[in-house]
Write a structure and sequence with these properties.
Helix content is 23%, strand content 28%. It is α/β, with parallel strands linked by helices and 181 residues long. A hairpin with a 2-residue loop joins strand 7 and strand 8. Helix 1 crosses helix 2. The longest helix is centred in the C-terminal third of the chain and has 14 residues. The chain starts with a strand and ends in a 10-residue tail after the last helix.
Length: 181
């Protein structure tokens, strides 16, 4: 069960804006967080997944994709750089830049076109493509300790703030704001 540790769902009431810190005791909780995130995604969001190897970045993405109706395999695109998915109401692109030796590889791969459209871009190892990668709307950091995983989620843009506010409300059991069509 996802245990909220600290969350602000009003971007005006907290100096850090809308954010969420939670404890994820089991792998299923990381997938459940991904499913909760799926419910509030909007086209065009850029989401960075931060964390060392084995922290649950792909697990979170798997939960998100399953909640959007994807029934196939979900794997980290470490060797392919990108796994595209057409799911539910979204085009979703899952990136993994772990193997980049220099940020220029992002430019050489021609991946910037994906970030210019209305697809949702989920990026593992975004720091490997800086300074060329567009900044995130939502930044998610996963970390592990003895009692499981911990997650910090921050809205970095207006769209990201809205996303995190809705996520906090959903996890607290409140209905998120209706989505525009």
């Amino acid at each position: 069960m996802i245990e909220l540790l600290n969350a602000a769902d009003d971007n005006g009431s907290h100096p850090a804006g809308a954010h969420l810190h939670a404890h994820l005791p089991a792998e299923a909780d990381t997938e459940a967080l991904g499913a909760a995130l799926a419910a509030i995604l909007r086209p065009g969001l850029k989401i960075w997944l931060q964390g060392n190897l084995g922290m649950g970045k792909t697990t979170l993405t798997r939960g998100l994709l399953r909640a959007l109706g994807h029934e196939g395999k979900v794997k980290s695109p470490t060797y392919t750089l990108i796994e595209p998915y057409v799911v539910s109401r979204l085009d979703l692109y899952h990136f993994d830049f772990y193997r980049f030796n220099s940020p220029e590889e992002y430019l050489d791969a021609g991946l910037d076109e994906y970030f210019a459209d209305q697809g949702v871009c989920i990026v593992e190892w975004p720091d490997k493509a800086l300074p060329y990668l567009p900044l995130p709307d939502v930044e998610i950091r996963l970390d592990a300790r003895d009692s499981g995983r911990f997650v910090e989620i921050h809205g970095r843009t207006d769209a990201g703030q809205t996303c995190v506010i809705e996520l906090v409300r959903a996890l607290r059991g409140a209905d998120p704001a209706p989505k525009p069509d």
